[in-house]
């Protein structure tokens, strides 16, 4: 079994303190060699050994104060190199002051700028080495900004440090003044007004939003991030097992109203252990209903659709439930009756319909045949074979219809309301413009914008 040890902040700091000590020693010695043309006089060699440990101690201390030892190796960026240059410069100034005040022996001051340049080069080369190796291997660097200083931010950063997600947080922003200046896993919390400055400084390409926002506020934040050049924006939610789950910002997140959660217990009681037939099971609505029924413990799913490809797609996806795939049209009453007779469904959810308004306007006979006659066939057979519940999927366009599609669905509703249903409970539900469904205006808008 292969065991992979993950670095911690402590082990990372210790590693760099040890390697930096070797680099500082080597750079100072090489500076003396270059200063004296590779022949260091004995009295200056004594100076070297007398002062090198003071210089190393000063540099290590200043590096620690600049939090350079808490920078993750694999995501070292140019702004981090700038911090190193400042730290080295301050270290050299402090060293010169101490040397002038307290050391009386000979000292080649021209070795100081040489030491500065060598230390900067060697330290930078070490820090950049892993990033260059990652780029050589084709791995993608993804500097990320966290929006929201909270528990989810802590979990996100922790997951990134452990390699669980392909994002590396470099900064946190929050509009809560009490959180500004705090540190989360050595990442400082900045005010939101510094967002454009941080994005430019760290070359940020991704953002993870861990804070809850209203749809309007989220919309404004989304547009703001896109304006600053952030290409990938994720929403974070904390799961029950404390693992972090990231997803893209969806259209429903930007709506002026919040989606309503389903009553899963009531649905489970309705579906569990039942044989459920879904017509139009390969469509956008029908396929999602099929997924929900499978999760709710349906005994068997009878998935009916006239599209071979759509039916294949949903059957391949639902592998944890007994499914029967039937390539049928609801217009073919004889074939449909054989299905009712053979499988005896307890519940029928009728989602099969032509729903594209312009196409229905151009194909009136086909719309009438499929929507009205197909629905009548399903309702009649459900009553004949004593189906417990029949659900008709309708549309908001059935309200005072002004087009062929809406008119056909209104007729279906009227038939469902007035037919002699015997022991079958017939209900209808009107759907609006379903986000992300085929034919929905949202994907069309996305394609136009893209």
Describe the protein.
With 450 residues, the protein is α/β, with parallel strands linked by helices. The protein has three domains: 9-136, no CATH class; 143-254, Rossmann fold (3-Layer(aba) Sandwich), CATH 3.40.50; 264-431, Rossmann fold, CATH 3.40.50.720. Helix 3 packs antiparallel against helix 4, helix 11 runs parallel beside helix 13 and helix 13 runs parallel beside helix 14 (404-418). Helices cover 50% and strands 15% of the residues. The protein has helices at residues 9-35, 42-65, 78-102, 111-136, 151-161, 195-201, 215-227, 264-271, 284-295, 308-317, 333-343, 357-362, 364-384, 404-418, 441-449, and strands at 143-147, 168-174, 183-184, 187-191, 206-209, 232-238, 244-248, 275-279, 300-305, 323-327, 347-350, 389-395, 425-431. Helix 9 (284-295) links the parallel strand 8 and strand 9 (300-305). The model is unreliable at 1-5 and 238-244 (pLDDT under 50).
- How many helices? 15
Low-confidence stretches: 1-5, 238-244
SSE class? alpha/beta
**Share of β-strand residues:** 15-25%
How are helices and strands ordered from N to C? HHHHEHEEEHEHEEHEHEHEHEHHEHEH
Look at the structure and give the CATH class of the largest domain: Alpha Beta
Average residue pLDDT? 84
Q: How large, in whole angstroms, is the Cα Rg?
A: 34 Å
Termini Cα gap: 47 Å
Broad shape:
rod-shaped
Q: Looking at the chains present, what oligomeric state does this protein adopt?
A: single chain
> Strand arrangement, largest sheet?
3-4-2-1-5-6-7
CATH superfamily of the largest domain: NAD(P)-binding Rossmann-like Domain
- CATH architectural name of the largest domain: 3-Layer(aba) Sandwich
Helix coverage percent? 40-55%
At the fold tier of CATH, the topology name of the largest domain is: Rossmann fold
Strands, total number:
13
